[in-house]
Automatic annotation (TrEMBL):
Function noted in UniProt: Site-specific tyrosine recombinase, which acts by catalyzing the cutting and rejoining of the recombining DNA molecules. The XerC-XerD complex is essential to convert dimers of the bacterial chromosome into monomers to permit their segregation at cell division. It also contributes to the segregational stability of plasmids.
GO CC list: cytoplasm
Every Tyr recombinase domain range: 108-321
MF annotations from Gene Ontology: DNA binding
CDD domains, per the entry: INT_IntI_C (cd01193)
Pfam families listed in its UniProt record: Phage_int_SAM_4, Phage_integrase
Domain Core-binding (CB): 7-90
Annotated protein name in UniProt: Integron integrase
Subunit: Forms a cyclic heterotetrameric complex composed of two molecules of XerC and two molecules of XerD.
Taxonomic superkingdom: Bacteria
Sorted UniProt keywords: Cytoplasm, DNA integration, DNA recombination, DNA-binding
Main location: cytoplasm
One GO-annotated biological process of the protein: DNA integration
Length: 327
């Protein structure tokens, strides 16, 4: 009588990958967490994390800060990845992880364009990138919220955009600028034509979040679920290995905005996110209350939104210099 061998346990990184996907984390979070966990293991000579603890984690984070010279946000992302490994994969009671000191982010005021400079940058962008950047400025969208927009979330009648699964995995509604209604409708006609061509060629099924693909098996081919800004070519999905059309790469918009800022002769370290900062600041300048702006931006805490009130203070907390009062 033969005795069946017990099934071997999946490799540690495969366990991490499975735990991440069960919790519906994004592909970017998966890639980042796996990368940090690998670096942590290799830093300690390929020791198994189960044999390590607080001292080894602190040593790794210190190495990142001193030798790696990484930003506070990067160091904290590494800690989040390691915390996920111990709590969700190794299932260890690691209350001591809460005692590991997190790097403090430096307090900086956001870079903001004046309305005139914002328009100058937008005018220098190619047509499709200009439309996307206009949504960042006109609706206060984050970069990834913009590239992930779906057709069904555009409401032209009420002139509003529903942002699905934004930061903090929350939905919110923001304004759709009147000036963008016609250009967006033209864009959707282009998307529809592209989608119909994909369907004719046996494709046209877009990625659906979470379990929606199982719950609504035909929804991924519907026009409403297509991306407002699709990629020019189809590609293989890294998780499902299915060929489909994804959204436009965010790096394409980032590079276009950087080039436009440079062409406009603006000597500020601006980026795509500068348009979102400008959206909030200009609304404040126009008299809108802080709570309304908080809701439009999707901030959990109003204190996050309050930083834009500091941007408005002219001459250092609104003080008039005595030199300006001299004759």
């Amino acid at each position: 009588m033969s005795i069946s061998k017990p099934k071997s346990q999946p490799k540690l990184l495969d366990q991490v990958r499975e735990a991440i996907r069960v919790r519906h984390y994004s592909i970017r979070t998966e890639q980042a967490y796996l990368g940090w966990i690998k670096r942590f293991i290799f830093f300690h000579g390929k020791r198994h994390p189960g044999d390590m603890g607080k001292a080894e984690i602190s040593a790794f984070l210190t190495h990142l800060a001193i030798s790696g010279n990484v930003a506070a946000s990067t160091q904290n992302q590494a800690l989040n990845a390691i915390m996920f490994l111990y709590r969700e994969v190794l299932k260890q009671d690691v209350g001591w992880l809460d005692e590991v000191e997190r790097a403090k982010k430096p307090s900086r005021l956001p870079v903001v364009f004046t309305p005139n400079k914002a328009r100058r940058v937008l005018a220098l962008l190619p047509k499709d990138k200009g439309l996307m950047a206009s949504l960042l400025y006109g609706s206060g969208l984050r970069l990834m919220e913009c590239v992930r927009l779906r057709v069904k979330d555009m409401d032209f009648h009420y002139r509003q955009i529903t942002v699905r699964d934004g930061k903090g995995r929350k939905d919110r509604v923001t304004v759709l600028p009147k000036k963008l209604v016609e250009p967006l409708q033209v864009q959707l006609e282009t998307v529809k034509s592209l989608h119909q061509q994909d369907l004719k060629e046996g494709y046209g099924a877009v990625y659906l979040p979470y379990a929606l693909e199982k719950k609504y098996p035909n929804a991924n081919r519907e026009f409403g679920w297509q991306y407002v800004f699709p990629a020019s070519k189809r590609a293989i999905d890294p998780r499902s290995r299915v060929e489909r059309r994804h959204h436009l790469s965010e790096t394409a918009l980032q590079q276009a905005v950087k080039n436009a800022i440079r062409k406009a002769g603006i000597n500020k370290p601006g980026s795509c996110h500068t348009f979102r900062h400008s959206f909030a600041t200009h609304l404040l300048e126009n008299g809108y209350d802080i709570r309304t702006i908080q809701e439009l931006l999707g901030h959990k805490d109003v204190n996050t939104t309050m930083i834009y009130t500091h941007v408005l203070e002219r001459g250092g907390r609104g003080v008039r210099s005595p030199l300006d009062d001299s004759g």
